[in-house]
Amino acid sequence: MNKKFVIAYFICLSPFFVFAQNISGFWKGTLDMNRGCFAENNIELQFSAKGDSLSGSSYHYLDVNYYVKKKFAGVADPVTKKFIIEERVVTTFKIPSFCNVCIKRYELTYSRVGNQEFLKGGWSSILIGNYTNCDSGPITLSRIAQSAFREIPEINVDTGQIRLDFYDNGQIDNDSISVRINDQMVLTHQKLSLTPITAIIRIDLNNTFQEVEMIAENLGSIPPNTALLIITAGKKRYELFMSSSTQKSAKVRFLYEKPD
């Protein structure tokens, strides 16, 4: 092959692949859905780009308490200069009982106006289970610095039993907490100390999602109400620092991930 042609071919394609690399991160938009589950249909795509391959998670949500989370895969197409993204697996959801879950496909192109970056294009969807058409339409996503879900940690686990140990974080100041799991109260008016307050939950194919909420019953002598949560899931161990007030509780979510 002619050397000049190789150089010219590379120069022609390289800006597109720079775009593919640059879309890693968080993007937010809204969906105009005729049969949408929520009053406001927000969408957040969390991209990881490697070469021309794309992967990540999508959130379709009203707010951080009502949402559907899915994994997606995709590719940067050098011919059409589009990003083709297909949602694959529903990892978890918290939606009203009358809602249906749709799997979406996106075709997006990158653009930049000043300091703002956009992904624009269209989307289509099929109903999970029977593969009938859900809805479709245009979409514009803009890059955002942080995920709307950043305040609620999500931990993927593949074990049956999870042990939760709550300790006072630092100086013992008479903090008192209650704990809800999936909206069910399991601990009430427990004083944090150097001795753990313990709760056990199960996660498996029959219980794929567990949301743990720490509620401040008081603020102790040193506000806010803070705790160290030690999580033991099989051979894995995690530490989380949780902070809650009388206006806002602290949450962590556990998602079942089937072992390889």
- Indicate the proportion of strand residues: over 45%
Distance between the termini: 44 Å
Question: What is the gyration radius calculated from CA atoms?
Answer: 22 Å
For the biggest sheet, the summary is: 8 strands, antiparallel, barrel
Shape: elongated
Would you kindly provide a written description of the structure presented here, covering whatever features stand out?
- With 260 residues, the protein is mostly beta strands.
- It contains one helix and 17 strands.
- The protein folds into two domains: 142 residues, Lipocalin (Beta Barrel); 103 residues, Lipoxygenase-1, CATH 2.60.60.
- Helices cover 8% and strands 58% of the residues.
- The strands form three sheets. An eight-stranded antiparallel barrel has the order 1-2-3-4-5-6-7-8. A five-stranded mixed sheet has the order 9-17-14-11-12, with no helix packed on it. Strands 13-10-15-16 form a four-stranded antiparallel sheet, with no helix packed on it.
- A hairpin with a 4-residue loop joins strand 4 and strand 5.
- Keywords: Signal.
Summed up, what is this model?
It contains one helix and 17 strands. It is mainly β and 260 residues long. Strands 1-2-3-4-5-6-7-8 form an eight-stranded antiparallel β-barrel. The protein has a five-stranded mixed sheet with strand order 9-17-14-11-12, with no helix packed on it. It has a four-stranded antiparallel sheet with strand order 13-10-15-16, with no helix packed on it.
Topology:
Blueprint: H1 3-22, E1 25-30, E2 42-50, E3 53-63, E4 66-77, E5 82-94, E6 102-113, E7 116-127, E8 133-144, E9 154-157, E10 161-168, E11 176-181, E12 184-191, E13 197-202, E14 209-216, E15 225-233, E16 236-244, E17 250-256
Parallel strand pairs: 9-17
Antiparallel strand pairs: 1-2, 1-8, 2-3, 3-4, 4-5, 5-6, 6-7, 7-8, 10-13, 10-15, 11-12, 11-14, 14-17, 15-16
